[in-house]
Amino acid sequence: MYMTRHASKQTTGADGLDSPHVFSFAPNGDGFLLDGKPFQIRSGELHPARIPVEYWRHRIQMAKAMGMNTIALYVMWNYHETREGTFDFQTDNRDIEAFIRLCQAENMWVLFRPGPYVCAEWDLGGIPSYLLKYADIRLRTDYASDARYMRAVERYIDELVPRVRPLMAQDGGPILMIQIENEFGSFDRNRAYLEELRQLWMRGGIPGPFYTEDGVVQLQQNLSYVADGAIALSNANAAQIDAVRKIFPSVPAMAGEVYPGWLTHWGDDAFQGTSVDLSATLDELMRNKQSFNLYVIHGGTSFGFYAGANVDADSGEYQPDITSYDYAAPINEQGAATARYLTYRGIIARYLSAPLPDVPMPIATIPSMDSNGIRRLMPRRFASLWDNLPAALAPADTMQPQPFEMYGQAFGFVLYRTKLERYAGGMLDIGDVHDYATVFVGDQYAGAVSRTRIREQLASPRNVVHRQPVALPDASSAPRASVLLEILVEGMGRVNYGHSMIDRKGIVDPVVIHDASGASEIPQGWEVVPLPMETSFIENLRPICSDASRPGIFFVATLSIRATGDVYLDMSEWIKGIVWVNGRNLGRYWHVGPQKRLYCPAPWLKPGDNTLLIFDLHQTDAKPVSLTSSLS
């Protein structure tokens, strides 16, 4: 049994807010105890990385007003170790300690979920992509199986330990428990790995309490629990908790992930999870006084390039996640209470002796209407990517293109180019490109290849094919003896779940040209131009567009406002690209949907003029961008 003391202010009983508290496991495993009395964990999951730092307190207060007494949070390792050996736990919304202190200030306990793997529909499940530079790397395994991975994990946990230790309950902080790994039973059976992770925390002076998270079947099959640790169950209800208690009677079990909605992929027919109703599940959990965590109570946004992906278990299709992580959660992407929120709040309140706090006021939005009707911005052509290319990374003697990770690049785009000395047209096969490529021959757009399946009516106007060769322009249209072949590849999110996580980006197969006669050629002598589209690149774009007909153009618009507020940018008239506002990357849009609008939080705006920058892979003419106040 673990016993932890907590001296911070918590609304836990009649004994006062300032007295020390002891958090422990009941000796018979029946549940959790606080000051020796039964304690129900009512948790809502929030991800600091998906929420602007200015909104952290608001979202915590929203969870509290729905009846939660705990906040669960993932820490995305690759959001903090942005380059190998370089950690950032200070800037912007990366200050995890500050987030946890805010939870404490709001009298909320914390369940700490640092991974190293978190899934979370986040790029590579939070694991840094630099590990993929090793051709034979093994992830989520012990020292004996791959010491390179575990040395990186050790460095990460060593960075966390001194930050987390003062925040543990026994040291006066709000953290009740630390989760070891995440849903490991769905991946492998390796008790040694889980124990090595536990030992890293203990070596740093944190003896627990620990817990694990898994599905019931996976837990039984792969024994994915740790010594003396509590058990949290994914997609669980009261009956499953009771069943696991019979199998593991000595430690408590809780519903670690209760899903109020679901994730959405690009190309889905509609936003997923909107029909989920947890009313009966919540009522039963509350009636039985069983502990639970809503995953997620508020999802937020996978800003920038951090959205992950899945591989369909049946078809093998790559399924990248949309930018929004609204998740059909009770608190929506913009932080507003939904109808489900109010329903769940009412169910929880019926079982509590004290009234819940008032629901916080919603965040203001920028009016979508002006005196002339619907407010629309009209961008203008600003710059061409082709006039802003940085120097090539490698000389023109590279035998074959390599994935992003081999060049030390995590996100964005890479341009691969080579000269074709005897161009004769034909078909270009770039294999299973990861994940979206536009092809140019002698400055002429030839077509695009998508790893993601696209509905035919959306693909045909731009000659987008799904994992097939691209028809190159007829040789008569490119009569020069030497023609430049250029392939611009976008990485769209690494797989974050299952056994396909070794998901390198860029060109991963040999490039082959098949001419009309049936002969094949593998071009040699490639140059590689990295285009991570980082802030410095965006801020230093030269406003030059020497060929306005060539796709790969940046557009700019000015949003003039008197006062700031949240806003959604409707990109439904655009094709595929990225949007920045005042240098902040809002994420990806794509006309395949279902997401057509990107969320821009008020703190990223300012009164007066704001700069909207759009990079579209296909659009050469500007289209309007409408202002709206909701995701759909």
Q: How do the strands and helices of this protein lay out in sequence?
A:
Elements: E1 3-6, E2 21-25, E3 32-34, E4 37-39, E5 42-45, H1 56-65, E6 70-74, H2 77-80, E7 81-83, E8 86-87, H3 96-105, E9 109-113, H4 147-164, E10 175-179, H5 191-203, E11 210-214, H6 216-222, E12 230-234, H7 238-247, E13 253-258, H8 279-287, E14 292-294, E15 309-311, E16 318-320, H9 339-349, E17 369-370, E18 373-374, E19 376-377, E20 380-384, E21 413-420, E22 427-429, E23 436-441, E24 444-450, H10 456-459, E25 464-466, E26 470-471, E27 483-490, E28 512-514, E29 520-521, E30 527-531, H11 535-539, E31 553-561, E32 567-570, E33 576-581, E34 584-590, E35 597-600, E36 608-616, E37 625-628
Parallel strand pairs: 5-6, 5-14, 6-9, 9-10, 10-11, 11-12, 12-13, 13-14, 24-25
Antiparallel strand pairs: 1-2, 2-3, 3-4, 7-8, 15-16, 17-18, 19-37, 20-31, 21-27, 21-30, 22-26, 22-28, 23-24, 23-27, 28-29, 31-36, 32-35, 32-37, 33-34, 33-36
Helix pairs in contact: 8-9
Domain Beta-galactosidase galactose-binding: 554-610
Domain Beta-galactosidase 1-like first all-beta: 401-530
Active site: 183 (proton donor), 257 (nucleophile)
